[in-house]
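Support reply, case 0932

Customer input (verbatim):
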Amino acid sequence: MPEDARGELQDGRFDFRAQKDGRVVVSWYGRPVTTLAGRDAERFLARVAGLDDHAAQLVMARVTGNFKRGNEKGRG
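Our regenerated output:
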């Protein structure tokens, strides 16, 4: 698993919410970035179960992929 060499994930910028229908919404600073469904959602929940916050941040960063393209204002 990749490391957070610059310590950027210490602030808890990623979060996720499991929904009743089985989908998982991963957010960045409260803004939805990606939605996982079906098998992908199950795998994600299994991966983050029991992880500390920083390790879960790394998993969420990986799942969201390269969603930032350099045109975001403010954070990050």
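We compared this against your earlier run and they match. Two observations from our side: The chain has a mean pLDDT of 81. Residues 8-64 form one domain. Please reopen the case if you see a mismatch on your end.
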